[in-house]
Amino acid sequence: MQNVETKQQPHIFVRVDDQYVRRGLSEKEKRIYLTVNAAAFVINVIAEKYSALQQELYSFDADSIKQNGKLPDNAATEINILGATESGIIVKAWDVLDWLDRLRKVLGGLAGVPKGENWKQSLRKSLESAEKVRNKIQHFDVTLNEILRKTYPPMGALLAGFPSEGHLHMRILVSTPARFASDDSIAIAIPAFPGVLSHADGIYLSVADEVACLSEMAKAVWDAREKFSAYIKERYQFEWPASNVSVIKKKVAIRSKNADATGE
Predict the structure, then answer these.
(1) 3-class secondary-structure state, position 146
(2) d(CA 185, CA 151)
(3) What is the Cα Rg of the chain in Å?
(4) Which of 27, 46, 146, 255 is least surrounded, with the fewest CB atoms within 10 Å of its CB?
(5) Phi-psi region of 257 (alpha: psi -120 to 50; beta: other; left: phi over 0)
(6) Rounded to two decimals, what is the model's pTM?
(7) pLDDT in tens, 118-153
(8) For residue 147, what are the contacts with CB-CB under 8 A and spacing of at least 6?
(9) Could you give the CA distance from residue 69 to residue 191 in angstroms, rounded to a whole number?
(10) Nearest of 81, 84, 135, 106 to residue 224 by alpha carbon
(11) How far apart are CA 106 and CA 155, in angstroms?
(12) What is the pLDDT of residues 25-63, one digit of tens each?
């Protein structure tokens, strides 16, 4: 059997500021520290991306808020059909969902926190719908037949409900509804509870026959973050990692199989 030479990938070695380095940790503690930081990083990202999605959703009604100081005073559902060049907000919703699903996976490898911790179990349970919706696109070759048969929008729809003077202002944003001429309607799966679009309050991503409530999952993440942060501080004296701290020095060492150079 012929040996195949494996090409070595070049690496960059970055010097970390000493004040952010924890020394004297055992291999077990290093694993805990690494996975805790990974989970905290993902949670911080979710907070930023979910907030950006909320702000963009409110921007659709910015004129009404500016003129009247509130959302439209009615219970009507407004539907916006978004073309391929207008679907940035759908992309933001998918981004939030992807990071929620990443958190689910990171929690599976989280060291130093027992599986029996109630907040951890509750959070993983809350994130299950993220995987279900994501799988609709992950396995698009299978979902495609369902999308064609039931005339679902290919990349889903975003549903957002906001309370307004005792009513609900609901907006549905439909992504790239590329349909055949013979299709005179688009199917959108909606949350399954009494009143549906009259009593919903939150942000939902609907893909084929699956619906994920982004706002419920985000709330579960915020609730878990408080307990998670308190747990690691009490148990390991770890402070919650900030999302805007630079820990990298300017000096970078670049090394590869054929090069070894250092520059400021």
Answers:
(1) helix
(2) 7
(3) 23
(4) 27
(5) alpha
(6) 0.78
(7) 999 999 999 999 999 998 888 888 888 888 888 888
(8) 154, 208
(9) 29
(10) 106
(11) 25
(12) 889 888 988 899 899 999 999 999 999 998 888 777 666
